[in-house]
Write a structure and sequence with these properties.
It is built from nine helices and no strands. By secondary structure, the protein is mostly helical. It is globular, with a radius of gyration of 19 Å.
């Protein structure tokens, strides 16, 4: 029985390895990150295959890859928060907010604030309709272009831009208090 599972793992890696790596590469900043994520996907696959059967291997692999990409962005992102944080009443403390969230030095306070921010962001994202949430996550966190999203969803680019705009407005409103608390810190 173990040989069957090993041969299944090897077959799956051969069948999906290149396309999965390409999928991941398009969504991360460099090849090293893509290879790390792919390795995490294969590790999780090998762990799960021993405990439970996977009905749709392809869908499972791509879902895990998307989750790993999102996790990587959540831990260490370089997204531009200008669109989400600044509006008509731009404040000079936006730079301070970014400095707290994206500083290279790690103190207990900055780690706490980062974790708090990401937790609140993902809670606020979960409040959105799936279409708005998906567009925001794909465009801002996975660095997909609107054209790539349009190709995947079949939606018009203008529709996607509109959905992202609604998401940004919601997130701006929802995270306003946290933003004030962090910048007054």
């Amino acid at each position: 029985m173990p040989d069957d599972k090993n041969s299944h793992i090897i077959h799956t890696i051969k069948a999906y390895g290149k396309s999965l790596l390409g999928f991941i590469r398009r969504r991360v900043k460099n090849d090293a990150d893509a290879e790390d994520i792919l390795q995490d996907v294969w590790y999780q696959f090998s762990s799960v295959i021993n405990s439970e059967p996977i009905e749709q291997t392809s869908a499972w692999l791509y879902r895990v890859a998307r989750n790993k990409i999102t996790d990587k962005h959540k831990k260490k992102t370089e997204t531009l928060l200008d669109d989400m944080l600044t509006g008509e009443d731009e404040e000079d403390d936006t730079a301070d907010f970014k400095a707290i969230l994206f500083t290279e030095t790690s103190t207990p306070e900055t780690e706490y604030l980062r974790n708090l921010f990401w937790d609140q962001l993902f809670i606020a994202l979960d409040e959105l309709p799936n279409e708005q949430k998906d567009v925001f996550v794909w465009h801002e966190l996975e660095n997909m272009s609107f054209q790539e999203i349009a190709d995947i969803t079949g939606e018009k680019m203008q529709t996607l831009v509109s959905r992202k705009r609604y998401a940004v407005l919601h997130l701006r409103k929802r995270l306003e208090q946290l933003y004030k608390e962090i910048t007054e810190y």
